[in-house]
Design a protein that fits this description.
The chain is mainly alpha-helical. It has 12 helices and 3 strands, in the order αααααααααααβββα.
Length: 228
């Protein structure tokens, strides 16, 4: 598949086409076609990993003012893990552009999470070298960061514990969670939770489980001014 098609789809034109090709060249292809003199994408993957971590760190720092260092570290790890990077790569059909050895190709290499995740990081490394950090940020701000939903954060951050720590600074304050509504069929229920501090409602959240709803209610409370 021609990489020019990918450039067109992403709205990005590489000045150094060899960098883009390198980003999509797997080591199995290089080992099998030694005369091609192509480089595999492992060095670009190394660079892209660092660029992505910095970009995600900056995004989290600027967009989550109430988030502690430990929470940002957990969320960053969830965003840059292999599973997430694979999803990002599949979003742009990266698999069809990767140069693979025949054996790797026949055994499903184009769908292999590790290969897709590496290609995504290598692409970011190539984009960084070709156009700089701002170009990487524009790409991520356009295509990746908008997909990072609240659901992704509640899976790695314990908002209830964070809220409990704040409330416990005042020993006489009481915190309670109530499921105030549930809807939908039994196999696809959605719960609505409300968190109360000193009898006052301070946050509401909904989720597929009671635990998720309570976590979202706690998150909503943390984003507000809590009662004295």
């Amino acid at each position: 598949m021609e990489l020019s098609q990918l450039e067109q789809e992403l709205g990005i034109t590489f000045q150094q086409k060899e960098l883009l090709k390198e980003a999509f060249t797997h080591s199995s292809y290089v080992n099998e076609y030694k005369k091609s003199k192509l480089k595999d994408n492992e060095r670009l993957e190394f660079l892209g990993d660092a660029v992505l971590e910095l970009a995600v760190s900056q995004y989290l720092f600027r967009n989550n003012q109430q988030m502690h260092e430990g929470e940002m570290t957990k969320l960053r790890a969830a965003i840059v893990c292999e599973a997430s990077l694979t999803v990002f790569a599949k979003q742009f059909d990266f698999g069809k552009y990767i140069l693979l050895g025949k054996g790797e190709d026949k055994t499903g290499g184009r769908e292999r999470p590790a290969i897709l995740a590496d290609a995504f990081e290598a692409f970011l490394g190539a984009l960084y070298l070709d156009q700089g950090f701002d170009a990487v940020l524009r790409f991520l701000n356009t295509h990746i960061f908008p997909t990072l939903t609240v659901d992704a954060t509640v899976s790695v951050i314990d908002y209830k514990s964070h809220l409990q720590e704040i409330v416990q600074q005042h020993k006489d304050r009481k915190i309670e969670y109530h499921i105030v509504d549930e809807c939908g069929p039994s196999h696809h229920k959605e719960f609505v939770a409300q968190v109360m501090i000193q009898g006052q409602p301070v946050g509401k959240g909904n989720g597929r489980t009671k635990k998720e709803a309570e976590q979202k209610a706690a998150k909503a409370a943390l984003e507000k001014k809590l009662p004295e």
